[in-house]
């Protein structure tokens, strides 16, 4: 083993590293708990735990600085530290088999949390009675979509995640005969009608509904019951020059359309979609409340699940604590529109690592039982071995 | 020097953390099943080769509900109203200009106040959108006269409707009013269980009498 490898090994096997990582983890949890007041649960999870570093923006700039190790870094190092300790430091013996089980369970827990963090998808599907959908929608992320709707049978979609829509960014996609330039992007903004009053700044938008609307940037919100409404001004540039600048926002309830190059196009900034190889139709939504209150007693959705090949065509009932599990997805009865008795909102979750926390808990419990059992047996045997002393 | 490899490791982890990037995707999607709600919002359709011009209405995004998506009007040009004491104000949020819970015998009804630029697709499209929300068949243009009541008060021209859906398991009713103001259309919609909305209708009509246009500058 050369010196460099030995240095790595010594670093990761060190018990000091374990202690430092645990102290840092406590600091992380403490800071995240306090920051939850400002950011809410989801943003805190993303900032502190589902990250390699906690980033802090230098005031007045958009430059992020890593100021503290994040959950992925601490968890990753803890995992490597534990595995290295088992390889190089711990001596394997039957008497310590319980500890091995507990530590293996802990490793699984760390791996499971990491997998959940990077692979879990959480979307929602809102359906009116009679409506069919083959996609779910994100309630946190948006996307700019440009659809070629010329063909009567399908739409060709180019989807640009909101994260790429920074002011001044440009995009040329092979499926688009024009370039897409983000002229202005507001992560959160309100829309208001232009009155044509004197003193109003001219709109950046030159096409669609945009020239009639003013977008006013607002501070980002992190509250649980609020969401940010982004606004983007997008200019499309063809070989002949500009095709126009459109104002797009998920607050606009309909996409905007235009014709170019003999094709029909549709533009929108909408909730990010995840398409499925199957469809769900809401047949009936039932909503009961406890008498004289608004407290939900029971709500359920009767759905029809169909696949294009006809292999699936069945009715399913989704209600509280009875989700539909299909194609690696779980559909929970999450909510409904209080102003519309014929609408359901399903939470759609994909989590390939969902089994690991259960397995790890079983292993850790078993490990503790085994370890305490071994000690108990040893203690009993020791007592038996001591000859009784005469009274 | 002993710590150089460890530092290198930390730097590489830092760089790795910057690798999770969003990507542009393209795919072919089946034509969306037409929404049961009729078209509502008149977005401008533009021939990109020519100057912008108003065009035909675009189909609404699936699941969209124009009445609950408001484009607030400019500061100082909002309509003003006085809500009855029994109505419980709700936070209008990003979507509405005003929002109230209207309590009633068979569950609460919801009163929403929204505003949109232009005529938002016209009277027929908007009324049919409301009808779709309580599972009623769309009206034909010839039915407009009988289905609506026109009202002039406080210098505003209201179009009043009263739709009830008795076929649903829980009869639902919408009593609503549309009013064009300064190039925008305002919507006042009371929707909920039939007994509640029926009981609240007189109060709703009185409430409409309190709606006033912004004072001239």
Tell me about this structure.
The complex is a heterodimer of chains A (391) and B (217). Chain A is α+β, with helices and mostly antiparallel strands. Chain A has 3 domains: 3-120 and 355-385, no CATH class; 121-132 and 276-350, Tick-borne Encephalitis virus Glycoprotein, domain 1 (Sandwich); 139-274, no CATH class. Chain A has helices at residues 3-13, 15-49, 71-89, 97-119, 355-385, and strands at residues 53-57, 64-69, 121-128, 132-148, 154-161, 170-172, 179-186, 189-193, 213-217, 231-238, 241-248, 256-260, 263-289, 296-306, 313-319, 324-326, 329-336, 343-350. In chain A, strands 4, 5, 12, 13, 14 and 15 form a 6-stranded antiparallel sheet that branches. In chain A, helix 3 (71-89) packs antiparallel against helix 4 (97-119) and helix 4 packs antiparallel against helix 5. The radius of gyration of chain A is 28 Å and the shape is globular. In chain A, 29% of the residues are buried. Chain B has a domain at 68-209: Protein Transport Mog1p, Chain A. Chain B has 4 helices and 9 strands. A 7-stranded antiparallel sheet of chain B has the order 3-4-5-9-8-7-6, sandwiched between helices. In chain B, strand 3 (88-89) and strand 4 form a beta hairpin. Chain B is extended, with a radius of gyration of 24 Å. At the A-B interface, helix 1, helix 3, strand 3, strand 4 and strand 5 of A face helix 1, strand 1, strand 2, strand 5 and strand 9 of B.
What structural keywords apply?
heterodimer, A: alpha+beta, Tick-borne Encephalitis virus Glycoprotein, domain 1, 3 domains, four-stranded antiparallel β-sheet, 30% helix, B: 217 residues, alpha+beta, Protein Transport Mog1p, Chain A, seven-stranded antiparallel β-sheet, 28% strand, extended
């Amino acid at each position: 083993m050369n010196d460099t490898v030995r240095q790595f090994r010594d670093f990761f096997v060190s018990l000091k590293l374990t202690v430092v990582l645990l102290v840092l983890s406590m600091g992380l949890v403490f800071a995240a708990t306090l920051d939850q007041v400002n950011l809410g649960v989801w943003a805190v999870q993303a900032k502190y735990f589902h990250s390699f570093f906690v980033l802090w923006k230098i005031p007045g700039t958009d430059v992020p600085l890593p100021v503290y190790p994040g959950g992925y870094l601490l968890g990753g190092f803890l995992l490597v530290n534990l595995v290295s300790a088992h390889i190089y430091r711990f001596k394997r013996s039957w008497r310590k088999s319980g500890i091995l089980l507990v530590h293996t369970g802990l490793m699984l827990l760390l791996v499971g949390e990491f997998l959940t963090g990077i692979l879990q998808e959480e979307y929602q599907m809102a359906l009116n009675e009679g409506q069919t959908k083959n996609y779910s929608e994100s309630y946190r992320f948006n996307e700019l979509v440009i659809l070629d709707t010329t063909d009567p049978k399908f739409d060709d979609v180019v989807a640009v995640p909101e994260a790429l829509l920074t002011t001044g960014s440009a995009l040329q996609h092979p499926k688009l005969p024009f370039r897409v330039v983000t002229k202005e992007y507001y992560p959160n903004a309100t829309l208001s009608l232009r009155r044509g009053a004197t003193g109003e700044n001219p709109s950046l938008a030159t096409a669609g509904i945009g020239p009639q609307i003013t977008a006013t940037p607002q501070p980002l919100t992190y509250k649980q019951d609020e969401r940010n409404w982004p606004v983007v001004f997008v200019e499309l540039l063809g070989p002949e020059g500009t095709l126009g600048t459109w104002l797009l926002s998920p607050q606009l309830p309909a996409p905007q359309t235009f014709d170019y190059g003999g094709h029909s196009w549709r533009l929108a900034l909408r909730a990010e979609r995840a398409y499925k190889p199957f469809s769900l139709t809401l047949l009936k939504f039932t909503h009961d409340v406890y008498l004289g209150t608004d407290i939900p007693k029971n709500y359920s959705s009767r759905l029809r699940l169909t696949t294009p090949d006809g292999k699936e065509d069945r009715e399913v009932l989704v209600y509280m604590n009875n989700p539909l599990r299909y194609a690696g997805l779980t559909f929970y009865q999450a909510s409904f529109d209080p102003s519309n008795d014929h609408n359901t909102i399903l939470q759609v979750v994909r989590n390939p690592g969902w089994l690991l926390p259960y397995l790890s808990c079983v292993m850790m419990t078993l490990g503790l039982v085994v370890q305490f059992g071994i000690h108990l047996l040893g203690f009993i045997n020791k007592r038996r071995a001591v000859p009784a002393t005469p009274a | 020097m002993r710590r150089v490899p460890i530092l290198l490791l930390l730097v590489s982890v830092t760089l790795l953390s910057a690798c999770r990037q969003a990507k542009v995707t393209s795919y072919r999607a089946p034509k969306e099943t037409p929404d049961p709600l009729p078209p509502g919002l008149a977005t401008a359709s533009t021939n990109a080769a020519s100057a912008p011009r108003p065009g035909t209405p675009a189909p609404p995004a699936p699941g969209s509900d124009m009445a609950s998506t408001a484009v607030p009007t400019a500061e100082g040009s909002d309509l003003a109203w006085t809500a009855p004491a029994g109505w419980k104000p709700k936070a209008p949020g990003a979507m509405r200009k005003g929002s109230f819970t209207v309590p009633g015998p068979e569950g609460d009804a919801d009163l929403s106040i929204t505003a949109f630029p232009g005529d938002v697709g016209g009277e027929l499209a908007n009324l049919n959108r409301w009808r779709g929300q309580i599972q009623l068949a769309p009206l034909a243009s010839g039915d407009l006269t009988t289905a609506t009541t026109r009202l002039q008060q406080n210098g505003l021209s209201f179009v009043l409707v009263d739709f009830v859906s008795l076929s649903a398991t829980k009869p639902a009713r919408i009593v609503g009013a549309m009013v064009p103001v300064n190039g925008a259309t305002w919507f006042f919609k009371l929707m909920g269980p039939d007994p509640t909305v029926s009981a609240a209708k007189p109060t709703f009509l009185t409430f409409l009498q309190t709606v006033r246009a912004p004072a001239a500058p």
